[in-house]
Amino acid sequence: MGFSAPRRGFLGLLGPARAKERESVEKIMEGLEKQSATYKNIILTRIDQRYVDDVWGEAQVRMTAHLRAGHRVKNPAAYMTRVCINCAYDELEKIKKRAEDLIGDDDTSVLERTDVLLDDSGLMYSDVKAIMAEVLTPRDHRAYVLRFVYGLNAKEIAEVLDWTHDCVRQSLVRADRILNRPEVKRRFRYRPRSSER
Fold first, then answer.
1. Residue 40 has pLDDT above 90, yes or no
2. DSSP for 161-190, written as a single string
3. How many C-beta atoms lie closer than 10 Å to residue 109's C-beta?
């Protein structure tokens, strides 16, 4: 059972249409790539410089997948702006999750590695975590880790934690003041464990 002549003619048109569709996706992406500086600046307003290239790469992957899935985009430039913003927020969420892992009480926390030395002082990661958790409030601890472990600025921390900019600044100042007290600084120095004495 074959197709009638008109039907065969219609099916023959599908091949060139798909090739044209792929070509149009590549042309759209080339056009967006030429404007990459603009999109990277948009990303930079939401996340630290060191994450910009990764976020831009993720945005390109998402946009290409969206177009190849057959979705029509009337204004690719505006759509790409939205994709860049979404990718930046997704990256901030990943950073927030990693920060929670660092300071959380979960047994799978990254800093539960008691056998890993922080430096040649003999201090362990778990010691630092325990001291910081003891002397800082959970809010100050979280803000401090995001600032000094992940390098986020106050504006980015405010977005990640859904705080005001002033709350973040106050937390960071408070944490810095507490961690710079002489009695706290002494605790960060190496002390032999009872098993080593």
1. yes
2. HT--HHHHHHHHHHHHHHHTSHHHHHHTS-
3. 16
Torsion of CA 58, 59, 64, 69, to 10 degrees: 90
- Decide if 139 contacts 132 (C-beta within 8 A): no
Q: Please report the pLDDT score of residue 156 as a whole number.
A: 85
Q: Do 42 and 84 form a contact (C-beta atoms < 8 A)? A: yes
- Nearest Cα to Cα of residue 43 among 99, 89, 84: 84
Residue 65, pLDDT above cutoff 70: yes
pLDDT at 122: 52
Amino acid at 22: R
Cα–Cα distance between 107 and 64 in angstroms, integer?
39
- Determine the pLDDT at residue 87: 93
pLDDT digits (tens, 9 = 90+) for 86-122: 999 898 888 877 777 666 544 344 444 444 444 445 5
In this prediction, residue 104 carries a pLDDT of 57
CA nearest neighbour of 115 among 127, 103, 106: 127
Report d(CA 193, CA 83) in Å as an integer: 52
Burial class (CB within 10 angstroms; exposed 0-12, middle 13-18, buried 19+) of 121: exposed
